[in-house]
Amino acid sequence: MLDKVLIVNRGEIAVRIIRACRLLDIKSIAIFSEEDPSALHVKMADEAYHLGTGAVQDTYLNIQKIIQIAHDSGADAIHPGYGFLSESSIFASEIEKTKIKFVGPSSKVLEELGNKLIAKTYAEEANIPTVPGSAGAITSLSEAESVCEEIGYPIIIKAAFGGGGKGMEIVNSPSSLEVSLLGCQSIAKKFFGRKEVFIEKYISSPRHVEIQFLADNFGNIVHIGDRECSIQRSHQKIIEEAPSFLDNKTRNDLGEKVCSLAEKLKYTNAGTAEFLWREGNLYFNEINPRIQVEHPITEMITNIDLVAQQLRITNDEELAYKQKDITLRGHAIEFRINAEDPLKSFYPQSGVVSALNIPGGNFVRFDTFLYPSYKLPNNYDSLIGKLIIWGEYRKEAIERSRSALKELTIAGITSNISLHKAILENHEFQSREITTDFLEINKIQEILSHYEKMKIAAAYRIHTLNKGMNTNLLKGFRKRNEDYNRWKQQSKFEQQRNFP
Q1: Which of 161, 306, 345, 476 could form a disulfide with 192 if both were Cys (CB 3.0 to 4.6 A apart)?
Q2: Which residues are catalytic?
């Protein structure tokens, strides 16, 4: 088994990897920037190395410094987690020049999948439907106009080497094509170092479906169920569920095609193939060649530790599972808890955790790096925790989620917990009539804003009533209780949805 693993990440995923290392009796090595000396992953790791000062490019993205730390610490493997360098073919290539192993696919695979056009070609070879669009990168306005005329508006322009919603723009008419094309090329060059973009037919109001798979170094590949990630804001997932709404046959057929695609790529380790679904049609989107943020919901319905499997594969072990061994049981939901204000355009938040109450009970899991008195920096991703709930059925998972979200308290930092509570009470969510524009269609933020105003009004009313409690304590208490109950009844989200 591997002896030491260097974890080149921070936050909840670093903590998650450390726990998997402990399970396999592997020593964990952490790295940290000047903002993170007291971070939980630093406290939990067997060893920790300071990355020095400076911006993220000088710390968590500093390839040469990280590889030097790997050598100095005696690490025999590097786990990138997600984000940062997890999809960098350059990073993987530099590691391959050493005797250290990379927990993930080869640099060649990362390079190919980093180009969405190449990934799309592989998908077509595996008989996976793709979205109609340009055959290659768009090099001129006339070429773009020709493609748009063929597939029809609306279209979407995407950065060929992009991700995270950057370098993407929807175009509804020819009049705005030129400006949008130049804008996307400029953003692509700025963020990804390559200006290549391509055009696809815009699939409006789709559902987001993905297939998890594992591939070892001996040619064994299995698909491990699916997930739905349709609840999003600004192309960022906020709630994920497993399994998705697909029927068993469709899920298995799609999984087999994904395994065929992974085989063509000579893919190894954990990966996720993403798809868009609209009116019964599935379209390939991309492959994420790393562990996903939402991997815990797959773990909950399969009882397979995906991070441990990553480490075992890196250790040149064969998969312990055949396809027939993979079974799905129950339903799991993940709520991404972000330090952001949903009433202020999801503006990122920071601060000191003054109190923390983590929900408990059967089938409740909360992956986080927070602890009381921890000071959350403001220059990293806003994800601060993931609440993962399992139920025998989706309805049970929703009920358990409702209870867990009531328990979850993070004082000192504004978060999106209230947003999740609002979504849970939405009829369309409960009946699973959801698409990627769910928040906008259902005016969730408007409902949440109204809910917050009602809470303030109720608090003021209670405060006013308290002034008279010295003269008639019992009467005042009863009146306050009646007002609270009346407000509680009036604030049900089923009723709030009728407000303009």
Answers
A1: 161
A2: 290
Residue of 188, 141, 150, 148 whose CA lies nearest to 168: 188
Widest CA span in the chain: 82
Instruction: Tell me if the bond preceding 154 is cis, omega within 30° of 0.
Output: yes
Task: Look up residue 158 and give its two tokens.
Answer: 């995407």
State both tokens at 287.
Answer: 């492959």
Asked if 163 contacts 287 with a C-beta cutoff of 8 angstroms, the reply is no
What is the C-alpha separation between 295 and 477, in angstroms, rounded?
A: 48
> Omega before 342 cis (within 30°)?
no
Tell me the fold of 4-103. Answer: Rossmann fold (3.40.50)
Strands, DSSP E only, in 46-129?
47-50, 77-79, 101-102
Domain locations along the chain: 4-103, 132-201, 207-441, 448-496
Cα–Cα distance, 408 to 415 (Å, whole number): 11
CA distances (Å), origin 500, targets 170, 345, 418, 422, 497 = 28, 19, 20, 16, 8
Phi and psi at residue 344, in whole multiples of 5°?
-130, 55
Per-residue pLDDT tens digits of the chain, which is 500 residues long: 899 999 999 999 999 999 999 999 999 999 999 999 999 999 999 999 999 999 999 999 999 999 999 999 999 999 999 999 999 999 999 999 999 999 999 999 999 999 999 999 999 999 999 999 999 999 999 999 999 999 999 999 999 997 767 889 999 999 999 999 999 999 999 888 899 999 999 999 999 999 999 999 999 999 999 999 999 998 899 999 999 999 999 999 999 999 999 999 999 999 999 999 999 999 999 999 999 999 999 999 999 999 999 999 999 999 999 999 999 999 999 999 999 999 999 999 999 999 999 999 999 999 999 999 999 999 999 999 999 999 999 999 999 999 999 999 999 999 999 999 999 999 999 999 999 999 999 999 888 887 777 667 766 677 676 665 555 555 554 554 554 455 445 444 433 433 33
Q: Does 207-441 carry CATH code 3.30.470.20?
A: yes
Going through 160-205 in order, the beta strands assigned E by DSSP cover: 169-171, 197-201
Q: What is the pTM of this model?
A: 0.89
What superfamily would CATH give domain 132-201? Answer: ATP-grasp fold, A domain (3.30.1490.20)
List of residues 6+ apart from 189 with CB closer than 8 A? 195
